[in-house]
Amino acid sequence: MKKVLSAALSLLVLFSLMAMIGPSSVSAKPLTDYNVLILKNSDAWGTPAVEDVLTGMGVPYDVMTSTELQNKTARDLIGAYDMIIIVSDQGQQFYNEIGPQMGKLEEYVKAGNVLEIHAANWGWNGGLWTTPLPGNVTITQSYSGRDYVIANNTTLISSYASHGYLIGLPANAEIITVQAPGGSPDYGKPSTAVYAFGNGNVFVTGLTIEYSVARKGPEWKAFYKEVIINNLGYSSMAPTPKVPVQKGINVMLFNFYYYIQYHRALDEYNVLYTEAVEGGMDNETLGIAQIQNSTASEYYANASQYGPVVANFPRIYIFIDLRKATLHQKQAVKTLKDAMAEP
Asked: Distance between CA 33 and CA 237 in Å, rounded?
């Protein structure tokens, strides 16, 4: 009985502290406040798919050729853009001119920005990369009709889902997709990854993003939208909430708060998703919500690797995963709610 009373008293203390402190504020920079630079000399596989997706998301962007980039310094780029996207399938002139400018782009990333490289060459425009990517990463030719998305155990299918896999990735790289030509993932052939470079991040993929977003199923567009959202989140321009230091009850308080919020959001998502399917919501929106839900589940699983989450409330090492699980789960709920609110 004493143990029960002690546990109940502890929970009352936690709830009281939460009432006084309130939920931690998490500001989100609107997508319309970002600015993206697209580098290309021509459309990849005959489609402006990157521009179309950014326009649909409300993200402002500029387009620049490899020749025009020669007139810009790293400082010019750092002051103007949150992220730079290099489009797939360019002619040889583009790669010949981009190669000598890679140092400028590396300086841009090291300053705390994001470089998103669509490295699928061997395409309709006939060009080939002539220099390594930041960190001496290279792509080797390898066609695959299927690529496996590790985070949510799904497969992207296209005529050629990817044109190559990555070699020489740094140890800190997060592998996002791998080739799966026979249907089973080949973890020795990573086709998409993101890795830290200086104070920024490099995202690189051998996926045929432009071709497949324009011509294949809605899961491709949903996947690429999630890529953009995540990559913009890496930008130094994005607000970075402070992580609480381990000070006894403070860590327990924050972990308890996110634990409760995650499960509330998960319950709400399950109800909303059923209603959305029954109401005939479009597959694209459902796909985006599913990606957020799956990502949340992955982070929660990471927080659970040390044992039951509730048993580890005092531990700082579950905080980041628990918080990210909550934020992604809430985003999944918001995606469905926003779509349902549309006339």
From this structure: 10
